[in-house]
Backbone:
């Protein structure tokens, strides 16, 4: 939540930061602002309520001049979205300016102290407190030397509790910028004669692919004409080599699509394929296990699996639960990370703990994983998309999904790639444990490798029909999504997609549960989206549930297998997906249909598909 950026170089900084902020806008879009250090050494700030487009307009009317700058896009935590609460924040004298992502937990206490010392506040934010603290410590400090700057910063940090990444400038420091990280992401980009700071890689991609990830409790100093210097918590310089990000800048562009979400749904097949690449065959098994950092002996000793995730990633985890049980014959449980961290579950010896996250920055998932790591009994790994993110440093191994940046706030291609990673992982573990024979492994992986093309077919062939349905149902007040077994999580995910971007209330239900309550909702005004592919073992049961819904007047949209005409009479409309040999792959195809449906409903309603209200892409606060 909240996007932060910083620039130090020779170019005019404001347009560059504006571009960076646009690329981070998915992190928050309540207000935005930029501050430059002018050639005269002053701090010049522009802030607006609302989206980056508003900031861009303001900057057109009042351009900012300077080549050292910082910027922010906000997702409000403390204080409503307003110009006073927008970042960057300054102290009373306007000597320090900073942007912040995270929460300062003890800000009230700090603010009381500052008020006693006659500081005056303009905003309701926790962040403004930091500007005042920096101002005090910098005035107390001894100039702008590296040692003086770092020791002032460390004196401030000692007073703070909470999670934060910060970018700070001061008139006294001149052409220098400080970046600080604790439990919120921060990455440095190394360009030619310029350095950048950002909370996420997409903001850096137009400038450089050469990055250095800042670790918790570290401070980074950007200075003219030299490589940024990193200091650890005790103030010692750290030598960390940079790394090249394998992402193309074009990945973070809309590429002719109206919305990122639409583009990303269509990137699902490529994301799935890339995630499988060089990992899916028996001869790749060792490499796969090495990435996941699990040894064969550990796999043999496994007794259960715990999957930790939130939102869409949790739905992928629920499918993982079925896969582990079906293929690897291992009891598995997917846990909502925010619940898990406060439940008194014990992690028993022989547990494999897998955290799933697109961003790798979700606070609850990270906290749940930290909790598991405390018990040495657990073997930990992550399925993560964002390279170098916090979660990747909390687990022993990481199986990266290879989606490239996901910008649309509603997660689509990441879900598909998370499933690809789960198929690989579970098949690998099942193979090592001998739960599936080599022939079966070969047969399943053969179909696994065909899934991207089948998914391409689904997207291309079903979109016109899905669009027509979206047109017909866009005014619906509510929706039920029903599925069973492996498709129950897809019903939950379909409902989540619809509600988050179209603001239509939708509920996902295990179809068998319908009779235990939700059937009371069903009438001609409550459309039902049924996931009923033929290959599923529970097809007959699903069919009965559809009959029951129809008998109560529901209009049914059904996802069915190509060639199956037997549901035509029950469903109002059917959408076909290709025949599969292994039902375990049905979720990938069915999910794509639900993603397309949600997208087109929201688009037709004229809503902001990529940045739905109240949401932010990475939930880095609890
Ligand atoms: C829904 C969505 C969210 C995320 C959830 C976890 O479309 O995007 O539910 O799935 O916030 O995020 P990550 O995967 O980044 O941990």
Residues:
């Amino acid at each position: 939540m909240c996007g932060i950026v910083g620039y130090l170089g020779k170019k005019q900084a404001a347009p560059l930061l504006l571009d960076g902020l646009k690329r981070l806008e998915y992190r928050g879009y309540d207000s935005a602002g930029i501050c430059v250090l002018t050639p005269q050494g002053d701090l010049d700030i522009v802030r607006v309520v609302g989206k980056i487009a508003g900031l861009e307009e303001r900057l057109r009317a009042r351009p900012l001049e300077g080549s050292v700058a910082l910027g922010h896009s906000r997702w409000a935590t403390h204080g409503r979205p307003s110009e006073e609460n927008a970042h960057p924040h300054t102290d009373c004298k306007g000597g320090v300016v900073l942007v912040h992502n995270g929460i300062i937990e003890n800000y009230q206490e700090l603010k009381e102290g500052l008020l006693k010392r006659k500081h005056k506040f303009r905003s309701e934010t926790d962040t403004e407190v930091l500007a005042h603290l920096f101002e005090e410590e910098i005035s107390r400090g001894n100039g702008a030397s590296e040692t003086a700057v770092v020791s002032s910063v460390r004196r401030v940090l000692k007073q703070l509790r909470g999670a934060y990444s910060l970018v700070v400038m001061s008139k006294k420091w001149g052409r220098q910028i400080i970046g600080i990280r604790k439990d919120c992401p921060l990455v440095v980009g190394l360009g030619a004669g310029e350095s950048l700071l950002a909370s996420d890689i997409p903001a850096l991609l137009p400038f450089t692919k050469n990055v250095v990830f800042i670790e918790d409790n570290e401070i980074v100093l950007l200075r003219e004409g030299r490589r940024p210097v990193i200091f650890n918590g005790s103030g010692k310089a750290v030598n960390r080599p940079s790394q090249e990000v394998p992402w193309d800048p074009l990945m973070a562009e809309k590429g002719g699509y109206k919305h990122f979400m639409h583009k990303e749904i269509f990137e699902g097949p490529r994301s799935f394929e890339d995630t499988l690449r060089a990992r899916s065959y028996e001869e790749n098994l060792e490499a796969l296990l090495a990435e996941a950092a699990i040894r064969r002996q550990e796999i043999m000793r496994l007794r259960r699996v715990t999957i930790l995730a939130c939102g869409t990633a949790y739905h992928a985890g629920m499918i993982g639960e079925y896969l582990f049980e079906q293929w690897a014959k291992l009891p598995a449980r997917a846990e909502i990370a925010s619940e898990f961290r406060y439940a008194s579950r014990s992690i028993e010896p022989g547990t494999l703990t897998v955290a799933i996250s697109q961003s790798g920055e979700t606070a609850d998932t990270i906290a749940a994983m930290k909790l598991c790591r405390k018990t040495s009994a657990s073997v930990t790994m992550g399925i993560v998309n964002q390279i170098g993110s916090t979660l990747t440093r909390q687990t022993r191994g990481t199986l990266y999904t290879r989606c490239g940046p996901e910008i649309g706030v509603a997660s689509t291609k990441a879900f598909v790639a998370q499933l690809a990673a789960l198929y690989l992982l579970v098949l690998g573990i099942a193979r090592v444990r001998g739960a599936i024979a080599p022939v079966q492994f070969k047969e399943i992986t053969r179909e696994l490798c065909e899934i991207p093309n089948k998914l391409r077919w689904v997207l291309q062939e079903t979109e016109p029909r899905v669009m027509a349905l979206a047109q017909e149902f866009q005014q619906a007040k509510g929706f039920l999504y029903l599925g069973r077994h492996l498709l129950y999580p897809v019903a939950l995910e379909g409902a989540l997609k619809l509600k988050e971007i179209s603001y239509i209330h939708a509920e996902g239900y295990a179809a068998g549960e319908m009779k235990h309550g939700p059937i009371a909702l069903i009438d001609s005004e409550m459309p039902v989206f049924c996931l009923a592919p033929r290959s599923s073992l529970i097809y007959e049961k699903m069919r009965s549930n559809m009959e029951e819904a129809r008998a109560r007047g529901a209009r049914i949209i059904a996802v069915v297998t190509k060639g199956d005409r037997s549901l035509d009479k029950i469903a109002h409309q059917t959408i076909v997906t290709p025949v599969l040999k292994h039902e375990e792959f049905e979720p990938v195809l069915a999910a794509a249909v639900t993603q397309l449906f949600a997208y087109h409903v929201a688009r037709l309603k004229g809503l902001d598909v990529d940045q739905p209200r109240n949401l932010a892409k990475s939930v880095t606060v609890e």
About this structure: The radius of gyration is 26 Å. The chain has a mean pLDDT of 93. The chain has three domains: 3-252, 257-449, 460-617. Residues 310-313, 357-359, 362, 365, 410-411, 496, 500, 618-619 surround fructose -6-phosphate (CB under 6 Å).
